[in-house]
């Protein structure tokens, strides 16, 4: 009975949006656990204390997505923005 209430075609986009959000959160959690230099999961690494490893921190913070968007304009649709904001049009 409850499955019929929630498994309607109108609810599929909601399931998709929530699934994508959960996937992004899961990906970020896995990325932090596996590559963040400040997260230490094993006991041996936790006893090391605070490390002064700036190269590893720089590598973590300057990931490939950040390098890709570094020189891009912060606009989603530049042609539409220019059309409405440019006084020459």
Automatic annotation (TrEMBL):
Lineage: Eukaryota, Viridiplantae, Streptophyta, Embryophyta, Tracheophyta
Record key words, sorted: Membrane, Transmembrane, Transmembrane helix
Protein name according to UniProt: NADH-ubiquinone reductase complex 1 MLRQ subunit
Listed Pfam families: B12D
Domain of life: Eukaryota
Annotated InterPro entries: B12D (IPR010530)
Annotated transmembrane regions: 12-30
């Amino acid at each position: 009975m409850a499955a019929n209430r929630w498994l309607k075609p109108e609810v599929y986009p909601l399931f998709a949006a929530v699934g994508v959000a959960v996937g992004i959160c899961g990906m970020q959690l896995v990325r932090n656990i596996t590559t963040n230099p400040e997260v230490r999961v094993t006991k041996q690494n936790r006893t090391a204390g605070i490390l002064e490893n700036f190269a590893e921190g720089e590598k973590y913070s300057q990931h490939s997505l950040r390098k890709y968007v570094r020189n891009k304009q912060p606009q989603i649709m530049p042609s539409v923005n220019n059309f409405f904001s440019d006084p020459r049009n």
